[in-house]
Structure formats: structure tokens, C-alpha cells
């Protein structure tokens, strides 16, 4: 894998990133260390985490993922200099008061969260520090429409950028990014950064997969013209695009068991919609009809897409990691891409 640049930064990363939100819930610390070591051995130099992980989020596991990674880095002192390490500061609580009190994400919240992440990760600097989701009113995590009636006073983007600028100036953060953002949000962060001489966002981490291509409807144009890179998360649609739920459904017993089958809370999210599974089944069958596994098709769709700088893969075992990495190099013919678009035209983006 050739390294790719992220936005206008000097960060050079592999086009596959190891996502870690399963560490601390589905994945015990010892196994997480095996996965981290295997990922580095296979040449992946990019790790993404967040202060609120593991997922599903609980007060007991909040910060566990960063702690696991920090302990691994301490046991492997030569690893840190080989890696681009990304983490995220959580937005408003969204029902998680253990992250912070109140509904905001002030500049002081950002500074405090960064210090805590640095301690858990046992590192002096975070290479890419991202805002996990906006404080302002946005349609995200399954909400389809912007409702201006829900707007309220809150922390300004300018204040958040100033706090991030303090962290960059102090050498605690190298570059900044966003996640679960909209075209408006990306434009505002870039505009205000350029206007006030503050750090410019390098990346946006948003969902992107066969059953959620909402990014194609405008955000891709924004990112292309502003020089901001996409980090695609959930390329396998929370497991729906592996085929494991095709026969059982998400309420059945999937082997190997996946998050959608284990955690009832996830069945109520956008990935648990009946329409999402119906669309996934169509894509999964399309893969089989063309001599591919469903996972190969779904991953190759992201791996080969011009919109995607790096695809974040989340795994629960070394075997799953190897399967995702082995899919690199899978090519999709123009005819197959047309068939993918035909299914999208029929189902649109059911996991949006």
C-alpha cells in the first residue's frame, strides 16, 4: 500500500486505518494488543480511536480503548514513531453524562479532553485530533433532516478552533479533523481557520459504505474543492455487508456473532433498519454473483473510491484483520460499479 496525504497536512498514512472502538467491549486487552501488533506487522501505520470508546458506550468502558492502546505503546516503545495516531474529543453528551456535564463542547472541554487522552494513550502528541460530532444542531446518526427550530445558542466554531489552535501551538496536537460533519460545517471550519490564522482541518471522518453513500450528495464536492480528506468509517455497514446476517437477520444468531446481534441498542440505530438489511442482502448477492465475498465487494468499493483517503476497518480478531487487509487490491469492473449504482438507485441510502 502506498501512503496517502491527509488534506493539506504532512501526515502520510496507509489507505487502511485500524479502527479500535471494539477494544474494551467485544475485545479484551490481550487480544487488542495482538490485533495492534499484527496491524503494524502488516504495514498499517494509522490507528484511530476516541475518548468515548469502547462502543457500545458505557460509563465503565469510557476511555478503555485509549488505555488499551496506551498500554500497548508502552510495551512496544518503537511502535509510536512508526504510527499516525488519531483520536477524537466527544461532542455534546448524547445521553452519556459520564463524558462531560452539560450539552456543550466548550474550548475548555476540548483542552481537558485532550489532556486526558494524552494520559491514557501514554504519548506526548496526538497526530490527528478530531471533533467526534458537532455541538450545533445537525442531522446525524440516522436523523435525515435539518430542523432549524432545534437550533440553540452554544459554543461557536471559532471558539472550538481557538482551543484546537492552543493544542497545536503547545505541540500536543499536530493536525485537526472533524467527524460526522456536514458541508456547511466543513466550510465554516475552513473559512474561520483561514480568516483567523487557526489550524485548518485536514480530514472528515464520516460513514461511507454501500448502504450509506449520503456523502456523495454534496459533501464530496465540498471536501474535494477545499482539500479535506475523507476517512471512511463503517465500510462494512456494521457487519451487514459481510453477509453474516443474510439468513438470520439482525435479531437472529449470526456466526460469528456480530455487534448487531449482540447489542440490542445497536439494532435500534440506522444500521438496524429493515431497509438497510434488505439493501445489504442485494449487494451481498451481487458480490457472490461476481466471484467475490460480500466483504471483498464492500471494502473494495471504499478502497478504490476517489473520495476516500483512508478506510477505517473495525475488527474483533486477528483473523478478521487479515481478511480486511487481504481485500486490498480487489478491483471492481466498470460493469460491476454500474450494477452497484443500480442497486443504490433502487434503495438509495437506507443506513443514512
TrEMBL record:
Residues 15-343 form the NADP-dependent oxidoreductase domain. The lineage of its organism: Bacteria, Pseudomonadati, Pseudomonadota, Betaproteobacteria, Burkholderiales. Gene3D superfamilies: NADP-dependent oxidoreductase domain. Keywords: Oxidoreductase. CDD domains: AKR_Tas-like. This is Aldo/keto reductase. The keyword Oxidoreductase applies. Pfam families: Aldo_ket_red.
